[in-house]
Amino acid sequence: MLPKLVDHTYDLFRSFDRASTVEDLNACLVRAVARFGVESTFAGVIPLPGIGRSAQAAHVLIDRTPQGWTDRYFRVGHLDRDPTIRRLTTDATPFLWSEIEPLYREDPAARRVMDEAGDFRLRQGFTVPLVTLDGRVAGFSFGAERLDLSPELRGMLHLIASYVFGRSLVLSHVADEGGGRPPVRLTPREREALQWAAAGKSEWEIGTLMAISEHGAEKHLRSVHRKLGAGSRTHAVAEALRRGLIT
Amino acid sequence: MIHIVTAENTARYADALEQAWRLRHRVFVEEKGWSDLARPDGREIDGFDDAHALHMLAIEAGTVVGYQRMLPTTRPYLLTEVLSELCEVEPPRSPHVWEWTRYAVERGHRDRGRILSPVGSALLTGIVEWGLESGVDAIVIEMNPLWLLRLVQLHFRVTPLGLPRPIAGEDTVAVSAAFDARTLARLRAVRGDDASVLSARPPRPLRLAS
């Protein structure tokens, strides 16, 4: 007999507790949900309307989505049309993306977001609305080409999303306060690469702008991720903005 | 201030408890629509409000503006008797674990938006201060899953006792949440106030056994 989902959830919570960086936590999360067919996870605080697109990207806390999707998402301004965002700011209960189809049936711009997501193997998904202690609304999404989630699994993902988001906030809070750790120093090239990344440029574009190879740009960014303990490009940008390393 | 009312000091709090029953009726029956609890006299009292229950009252200028009830898990409690479908594991039974129920904040003192209000955070701080003084280190909670993120942010170490299920139309999950001095430090930082919220030091030791 399979172990009960609640026992499995308990084991996962304790493994999340042991992760000492946001990066470790993300890796742990990705392993845990892959068992249930989840290919992508994405989470962040919902930005207030009207802020710039790179500032929007800085609200992302966890980004494990296929390469190119998040960059495109913020660059073309999908955030303002995304029906999952609209749904989670109006109703705090979790939902399958298939359940909100009526929300965008008559809205071509919203439908385009969902269709394009499908092109990035984000065809089916499940989103958990969250509210942080200071009242900010956040969203935590699980996606895949095909996602078959029983009500019990949805319940479990609901708990996992809440727990991991909380731990991420706690860990980045600890990182903020320094905890006696030395401040992060970026080399001028790393800072330049990250500044371009914050402007939504791809690795290829950054390479061209800095007159280096795409691989060289990737190397600088990887080093930045390591120094900032960031789990994704967007998280690195968010961290660097918060620490005043880029503008 | 949070006032702790037990069988020992009930007499001194007769008027405040009267207000608390009415607050519970307003919040749980009239607002949340838990019609099973409805009583013609407008006082929401049930079988768990016995000599073993510990009531915490948030009182401001003589008025009860917030309430919560703590029940020992060494006796039958809500999760084992009324909400057992939420518990898929062996329910906690320990003198160090109490159940947190009937959390209620008067409408005018409610969370702005969905944020934890000052009265709400005082009630929660009251549990942790009381627990640390009395040898209680975890609480059992049946709650909307939205609370989970808040608890993690406040340095509670949460253990799921079951998966979320709809109870009276609202998704509900049972957890136990352990706390320690870090939890108290975090709550005080959030409140921006290092002073104790309790009106008096809790009697020590509490009736932990029995």
From TrEMBL, chain A:
PROSITE patterns according to UniProt: HTH_LUXR_2
UniProt keyword list: DNA-binding, Transcription, Transcription regulation
GO terms (BP aspect): regulation of DNA-templated transcription
Domain of life: Bacteria
One Gene Ontology term of the molecular function aspect: DNA binding
Keyword presence, tRNA-binding: no
HTH luxR-type domain span: 179-244
PANTHER family linked: DNA-BINDING TRANSCRIPTIONAL ACTIVATOR DEVR_DOSR (PTHR44688:SF16)
Name of the protein: HTH luxR-type domain-containing protein
Source species: Methylobacterium hispanicum
UniProtKB/TrEMBL annotation, chain B:
Annotated InterPro entries: Acyl_CoA_acyltransferase (IPR016181), Autoind_synthase (IPR001690), GNAT_dom (IPR000182)
GO biological process per UniProt: quorum sensing; signal transduction
Pfam families: Autoind_synth (PF00765)
Example of a GO MF term: N-acyl homoserine lactone synthase activity
The EC number(s) this enzyme carries: 2.3.1.184
Catalytic activity: a fatty acyl-[ACP] + S-adenosyl-L-methionine = an N-acyl-L-homoserine lactone + S-methyl-5'-thioadenosine + holo-[ACP] + H(+)
N-acetyltransferase domain residues: 2-182
Keyword RNA-binding: no
Keywords of the record: Autoinducer synthesis, Quorum sensing, S-adenosyl-L-methionine, Transferase
Broad EC category: transferase
rRNA-binding recorded as keyword: no
Homology family: Belongs to the autoinducer synthase family.
PANTHER family cross-referenced by the UniProt entry: ACYL-HOMOSERINE-LACTONE SYNTHASE (PTHR39322), ISOVALERYL-HOMOSERINE LACTONE SYNTHASE (PTHR39322:SF1)
Protein name: Acyl-homoserine-lactone synthase
Origin organism lineage: Bacteria, Pseudomonadati, Pseudomonadota, Alphaproteobacteria, Hyphomicrobiales
